[in-house]
Every structure is written in structure tokens, then in C-alpha cells.
Amino acid sequence: MPETLHPQWQQWVLENLVAGATRGEVEEQLVAEGIDASLATTAVATLHQSPAFAVIRRLFLRGEALELMLRLRRDHRAHAERPIERIPLPSAADFERTYLQPGEPVILTDLVPRSRAYGRWSHAYFAEAHADVQVEVCMRRQSHRRPDADWRDLTETMSMREVIGHLATPHVGNDVYMIGKNGALHRPKLRAELDDVDLPAAYFGTTPPHRDTGLWIGAAGTHTPLHHDGNSAILMQFFGSKRFRMIPPESTALLDASDGVFSQWDPPEEREAEPLAPYREFVLEAGEALLLPAGWWHQVRALEPSISLTLTELAPGMDCSWYRPGTRLRGRPSPMRGGTPKLAPVAKR
Question: Is 0.70 surpassed by the pTM of this model?
Fold first, then answer.
């Protein structure tokens, strides 16, 4: 049987031809890696003349053009970058036109204080008022490599009294966290707490948004790594403070580093001299609410014991739930200028 190029080398050849390397350059590199010159010439010619190559090349060029558009948008935003605004609640029309539709984060300073729950919600309050209510909580997060992506594997059911007891343990940090996916507000006793949360109908509609409302209760040090959401959301901070780091969705570096909706890069505690992507950093204080537009990458760290509420059900016509790029991206192959892979050069069959 004649020799044939190993499938991994075939992939490498296609990646480099699509990225613009000439057939001669690719053949030369294959020979330098120990592949027979005749086999290299035949394999490269076959792949280059394949009908699939023309389709792949066309899609690649379209992707390059879209990436240039993203870079243009990113550079425009960078030149106009300003601190995230802190403003009183505007009219719903102004909010939608100025912040929601353009996808611009904003901190609302007087949405949370309108609620009777503000000033009452605390760890001690939930431990006393809902002591025996069974809730789901993520445990052993600190020792897990991807606690937020694999949250189902870490979920345990216990009473609210037990949850708050765990959170009161010194140095618990990120190990125990009652996250928004816990469905706590589906439970009748806890759902009643929403009656004391003032949600303006012009923003949230006339039906209480129980289904997609998340209750987050954690200790100082809880950490959600860099990720993006497909829905725009409003996060209401009722107790404690959280530090946010946010990056616009047009960051191509983060698209390349995506792992589903999460990023393979998470900004470290100490600022890097040259981060993978520049970010805006701020602290959301108790009593403030934050618009998290769909697609914005964000990392969250609680600076104090905290309680937050997230709402993704906005008034009809104000939602954004179509953004799903990170669910399919798994990084982009390196072009030939970055060197060749150390693969088995030839496989016989």
C-alpha cells in the first residue's frame, strides 16, 4: 500500500493553506520535518485542489473580514472608553435606547433602595426567617478545576440554616456558594421574598419574573471566573459588595480563548502588565444595580459576605437572548509562522 500523510498533518496542511501559506512553503516545511518530498508534493496538491478547500477558504476570508469589523468596533470603543456610569434610574425608553440596545453597562444607584428587602436581607436574616427551607448550594468549589462550568456535580441540598453556617466558617472563600442557578426562588417561602423587591413594570413587565430570577448568597471571596451570558441581565446588590472586571464582546482575543461561555484566561488577582484583554474594573456596592449586557465578558469577586439578585426577564421588547458565540468556539489553530506541530509525520496503511 502507498504511503499517505497522517490525518493530523493533513489538518495542519489545510490550516496553513487556508491561512495563506503557499504550496511551496508548506511542502518545504513538511520535507524539513522528515516527510518524503514526493509524498509532500502529492498530498499538498490533493488537498489544495479539493472542492472542500475552496469552501473552507471562502469561509476563512469571511471570518477574517468579520474579525476586522470587530477590531474596528473594539478600537472605536477603546478611544471613547470611559468609566461605567453611575446614574439614577432613567425612563425605560432612555434606558433601552442609551444602554440596553447599544450594549453599554451602567450602574443604577436608586433601583435597589426602592425595595423593602434592601436593608433587611442579610445572611442572618435568611438564616432566621428561612432556617428550615431546603435549598441547593455548590460545595467543594475550591478544589474543583471548573466549579462554575461543572456546578451540577458540586450541588448539595441542605437547609438555609446550614448554608449560612457554612458561610460563617472562617476562610470559606469560594468553597461554598449558593449560586443563581439553584432555583431557590421557586420555593414558595423564598418566592414570597420577591414581594418586597420593587421591580418597575416599565423595566420588568407586570408579571413577577420568578422563572429566571437568581438568588446568590456567598461569603467574601466567592469568585466567578471570566465568562459571558447570552441574555442581558440586571444584577441587584442587596448586601455586601462585589468587584467586577468587564470586557466588551468584540474582544477577539477572548473569542480565541473561549471554552463554551467561559474563558480559558481568567484575570489574576494582581493586575498583569500586559493582560490578554484590557478590562474595566469597579466595585458594585450594596444598594446598586448593574446592567450586564449580553455578550460582555465579566469576572466577579465578592469583597464581603454578599447577597445578589439577577433578573434576565425584562419587559417585552427589552430582552436580548440570541447571543451564543462562545458555545461553539474552541480556539483557533496557529498559522505556519508559529511553527509546525510535533506530530507523527507519516502513517502507513
Answer: yes
